[in-house]
Structure formats: C-alpha cells, structure tokens
Amino acid sequence: MQALHGSLVALVTPMSLNGDIDYVSLEKLIEWHIAEGTNGIVSVGTTGESSTLNPVEHLDVIDFTVKHVNKRIPVIAGTGANSTQEAIELTQESKKLGSDYALLVTPYYNKPNQRGLIAHYEAVADSVDIPQILYNVPSRTACDLLPSSVQVLSEHKNIVGIKEALDSMDRIKELVKISSHAANNFSIYSGDDPTFMESLALGAHGVISVAANIVPKSISHICSMVKSNNLNGAKELNFINKELFRLLFVESNPIPAKWMLYKMGLIQNAIRLPLVELDGTYQDDVMSEIKQLGIL
6-230: CATH homologous superfamily? Predict the structure, then answer.
C-alpha cells in the first residue's frame, strides 16, 4: 500500500459539451498533476460529481484513472453513497479495479444519527478489505460524524483515516489526538482549503484539496514546507492563495473550479445538471485572480 500524505487532489471529472466523460482531458489532467507534484488523486469524489455520474460512468472513470496513473501515485476512489449497500458495491468494484484507497462521504440526506453512521461505516469496512477513509462534510450532507464516533471507527483495521471538512481547529485537534492514540495507523486529512495549512501545522497528515485542481504545485509545496517545519514559507505561499480559496466556493463546488480549468484551457466548459456554469457576476473576479496568480 502506497503511503498517503501531502497534497491529494479532489479531481474534477472533465466532460464534453454533450455531457459525456472527456477522457482525453482526464488523461491530460492526470499527467499534469503527477508532473506538478500532487501526492495522490481522488477519483470521482464529490468534487468529481459522483452524485450525477451513473454507476457505469463512475467505475469507468476510476478504472481509467487507475490505469493511467499506473501506480506512480496513490489513487483514492470515491465510493461513498447514502445507501450502505451501494457504498459497499462501489467499494468492492473499486478494489477490483486496483484503487489504492476508498473515500466514503457520510450518507447525505438520510440524516443518520451517530449509531447509524458507525454501523454504516463498519458495514462497508467489514465487507471490503481495502484501506478506507471517512469523509465528513456537514455543510453538504446534513450530518456530522463526531470525534467520538471517529474514535470507535479508527479501531477497525480497514479504516485508516478521515477527511474532515469542518473548518474548526478544535475539531482537528480532537482528531489529531485520536490519531496519535489509535492502535492502527489512522491519518487526518483536511478537507477545507482555507484552513488546511493550519490543520497541517496542528498535525494533520495532508489535504484533500479542491484548490489543487488549479494550483497543484503550490498546494504540494505548502504541504512539503509544513512537513519540513518551514512554517513561515508555508504561510507566505498560503497567503498568496487566500483569494483563490474564497473564489473556489462562491458557488457550489465544483462550479468555480471547473470554470477556472476551462479558462485555463485544461477542460471543456461542461458540468452536469443541476449544476450550471459559474454565474456571470463572479466571472470577472475569477479571471482577475487567476491572471494575478499567473496561471492564465
């Protein structure tokens, strides 16, 4: 199993104007990320529009990504679902395709309680022998996986970490403490770009980043500088990206990220309904910022 640390991109899924998956652009993105120093690729996570890809497309994108990465860096398959059985099946199939890890978002809309969340994750972990990462993003799912539940789940041999997208340093501190006392290796990954550097400084092991879609080398460098204890350098580079972090979330992710990548000439201007192109009121600010960053 390849180690998982540093900058892990929550990769967008490129599409053609007719809505089909754009595999030519996907291959180019994969090669670009490896060349830019990205440490791992999340394939068809929530940023990859997992909620609007059908099951065949979902697994085809993972299969394509695994084959083209070809073990150069880890591939983390997004296999979460609000149906436990569907999550099990996606995780089983992703393992067969050669994914190194699975990332499972908390069940959305159902609003399970903590006992339900624990039972859900244990059912997947009991069913599939692949390293699994929990993913907590309460702003999108309407449920919050609490540290007390994470501590229980960290004891399962197949559950190896959590992506925490809550922008709370108190939460990160609690999770880092759980990680330090876990019987098995259990890693903490920030899922919040604006606060990820602070999370790393508190002991998180990496970031699963939307911003890495746009500035992969920069996010990777920040991770490396924190790891080498160059906090001043990390802070300076992180500050340069501050406005980008804000603009990436002026509308629902991945709307801004895909529009930026389109303007950068890396993908076509296509996103699945019910999401639509970035609203015109934001486009000038986005263009100004990506020009300021020298990526256009």
Answer: Aldolase class I (3.20.20.70)
Strands 132-136 and 159-164: parallel
Active site residue 67: no
Of the chain, the end-to-end C-alpha distance in Å amounts to: 37
Cα–Cα distance list, 75 to 55, 59, 98, 170, 175 (Å): 18, 13, 9, 29, 23
> What does the alpha-carbon distance between residue 208 and residue 246 come to, in Å, rounded to a whole number?
16
Please name which of 181, 208, 219, 193 lies closest in space to residue 46, comparing C-alpha atoms.
Answer: 208
Domain range list for the chain:
6-230
pLDDT tens digits for 153-178? 999 999 999 999 999 999 999 999 99
Q: Which of 95, 101, 121, 163 is catalytic?
A: 163
Contact present, 10 and 44 (Cβ < 8 Å): no
Which tens digits make up the pLDDT trace of 114-125?
999 999 999 999
DSSP at 169: H
Residue 276 neighbours by CB distance under 10 Å: 11
Q: In the 3-class helix/strand/coil scheme, how is 203-257 assigned residue by residue?
A: CCCEEEECHHHCCHHHHHHHHHHHHCCCHHHHHHHHHHCHHHHHHCCCCCCCHHH
Q: What phi, psi does 161 have (nearest 5°)?
A: 175, 180
Peptide bond into 274 cis (omega under 30): yes
3-state secondary structure at position 162: strand
* pTM of the predicted structure, to 2 decimals: 0.96
**Tokens 């009991």 appear where?**
126
CA atoms of 139 and 145, how far apart (whole Å): 12
The catalytically annotated residue of 135, 189, 258, 263 is 135
